[in-house]
Amino acid sequence: MEVTNRFITLKHHVDQGRAHESDMELGTTKEKLELKGENDVIVRVLYLSCDPYLRGRIRSTQDSYIPPFTPGKPMGGYGLGKVLQSSDPNFKEGDVVSGVMDWADYSHAFRSTKVDPEAVPLSYYLGALGMTGFTAYVGFFKICEPKKGETIYVSAASGAVGQMVGQFARLFGCHVVGSAGSQQKVDLLTSKFGYHEAFNYKEEPDLDAALKRYCPGGIDMYFENVGGKMLDAVLLNMKDHGRIAVCGMVSQYNKAEQDPIYNLSYVIKRRLKLEGFIQTDHLDLQPEFFKSVIGWFKEGKLNYVEDIADGLEKAPGALIGMLDGKNVGKQSVKVSDV
Amino acid sequence: MEVTNRFITLKHHVDQGRAHESDMELGTTKEKLELKGENDVIVRVLYLSCDPYLRGRIRSTQDSYIPPFTPGKPMGGYGLGKVLQSSDPNFKEGDVVSGVMDWADYSHAFRSTKVDPEAVPLSYYLGALGMTGFTAYVGFFKICEPKKGETIYVSAASGAVGQMVGQFARLFGCHVVGSAGSQQKVDLLTSKFGYHEAFNYKEEPDLDAALKRYCPGGIDMYFENVGGKMLDAVLLNMKDHGRIAVCGMVSQYNKAEQDPIYNLSYVIKRRLKLEGFIQTDHLDLQPEFFKSVIGWFKEGKLNYVEDIADGLEKAPGALIGMLDGKNVGKQSVKVSDV
């Protein structure tokens, strides 16, 4: 089967400062779609996911758990696709799968899982029921070790991960406080995402004072998405035996020199646990995650807000916008109808 | 019973910079030793323990788990004493107990435990079998979650805690690397305390390079005693899923502004766990601690080096010397013979 395949490539690595839409470009090629031996799957790409960790892959330095993109080759990440050809006995033509795939119209798919397009809106499998939702689930239920009645504070709380953490924590019986970077996002936190209290961190000149106002009894759990000055202020407000689940530090990803942290002595003073995690280390929790979260959606107990760009050519702008915090809700790109 | 009681007091709090011997003084008073109701114990003080956490009690600010000393009143801490009077059914005259007591010749004792002066040299109950040894035991066996064959790095490795951590880790089957601040201490690490490798951090202009040289395969566990620049260098050298047991940050205790930490993003990149702890949260482990450690001493498997100042009047100098790293081994003060 020969197709005209469009794809997004990185023109060059960007090690410092912001990456820009113009650092990526759309290419077109004619190619023959051919299975490579056994257990291969070729898909028509339906949706692609824009996630903060992709900033690391635009850097030339290999200092994280994931390698850099190769300039000139298609970028890639989590996506949803419809199976066109399969030599993997687990998948057949017409199945819809989530997996890792190129930022392209057509791609081989890796680490695929079949999804049920009837259970929830399809794009949810990239977010609420995808990597970011599972990240929220692992981070809250496992890394935070929550107890009913405890106070959790979440930064970047309206993001793809944060909006799920807030709702999981509310359902679990915690007091839930979040921050975001615009009034629109703050309104979503309390109206849709289960947060009891929310504030716009950009309007708080003194983060320590803001946290003391919104969490007057202190913080038992901090779900860390941003790093830097926010983390430093949170450390001052943690309660004894508090837990900090370190999911991301998006405020630091563009910085050549990281913001200094001064308050780590609170790790001893308050006997805190800080733990970095990635969801792929906890795949044993996936069955209970799917069961719980699909159940909660069907019972109407969960909301989910997405920001979907339409068309593969919009992917670079969507990615950069997400890194700049311009998206409202989980950022994805729709490439094709089912 | 009326006695002439000598005691050490703090003249005033010292919030910033080094504390000095001259910030403390010896006082003398005549007093009548009288039991205060039930479950009280009065002891002749035998030994007193000089520990890094005492620096925090010399400060006026209450921002830790332990209150400041009151100027003019006797200082206090862990000690050993011989029971003179007791209204506590667990203790009788002549018993030797470890507990919390004044820096004085005579004191009421709190949280006392009877010790066996025949099992090991008596002063060991302030160190190897006391708070610092138990801190090492909790930090290594519980917080570090060790596995045989893993590499552990210990800072302040010849200190009261570090020398026990090294030996516990060696007995357990780990590769053990330590640092200290003089050649004499470094020699002790490899000759007496079970360390496979050791270095003098004061002679290493680039701590990151030193750690790469002494731990070329990376660090699975870091037993943190010093904080600051050492912690920042260690973060760069941790292996995936590494654990950092945060026991103390002695390099930071005198500083008005804490040293900045820049490399916390490695908590995500390497999925690290940092955990602050104090031994009093883990008293359930004390029975196994005493059984194991007394057993290892009797089998000749453990060494212990102490630095004992002779006389209550030497206590201020011993404390300051320990905070400056001048002691070799666990610093205690002998107040009286049994």
Describe this structure in words.
The first copy, chain A, has 338 residues and is of the alpha/beta class. Helix content of chain A is 23%, strand content 29%. Chain A has nine helices and 14 strands. In chain A, the strands form three sheets. In chain A, strands 3, 4, 5, 6, 13 and 14 form a six-stranded mixed sheet that branches. In chain A, helix 6 links the parallel strand 10 and strand 11. The longest helix of chain A is centred in the middle third of the chain and has 13 residues. Chain A is globular and about 65 Å long. Chains A and B meet through strand 11, helix 7 and strand 12 of A and strand 11, helix 7 and strand 12 of B. Strand 12 of chain A pairs antiparallel with strand 12 of chain B, so a sheet runs across the interface.
Keywords for this structure?
homodimer; 338 residues; alpha/beta; Quinone Oxidoreductase, Chain A, domain 1; Rossmann fold; 6-stranded mixed β-sheet; 6-stranded parallel β-sheet; 9 helices; 14 strands; 23% helix; globular
SSE blueprint:
The structure is a homodimer of 338-residue chains.
Chain A: E1 2-10, E2 24-32, E3 41-49, H1 54-57, E4 76-86, E5 96-102, E6 106-114, H2 131-143, E7 151-154, H3 162-172, E8 175-180, H4 183-191, E9 197-200, H5 207-214, E10 219-224, H6 228-235, E11 238-246, H7 266-269, E12 273-276, H8 286-298, E13 306-310, H9 315-323, E14 330-334
Parallel strand pairs in A: 7-8, 7-10, 8-9, 10-11, 11-12, 13-14
Antiparallel strand pairs in A: 1-2, 3-4, 3-6, 3-14, 4-5, 5-6
Helix pairs in contact in A: 2-3
Protein name (chains A, B): Enoyl reductase (ER) domain-containing protein
Domain Enoyl reductase (ER) (chains A, B): 19-333
GO molecular function (chains A, B): oxidoreductase activity
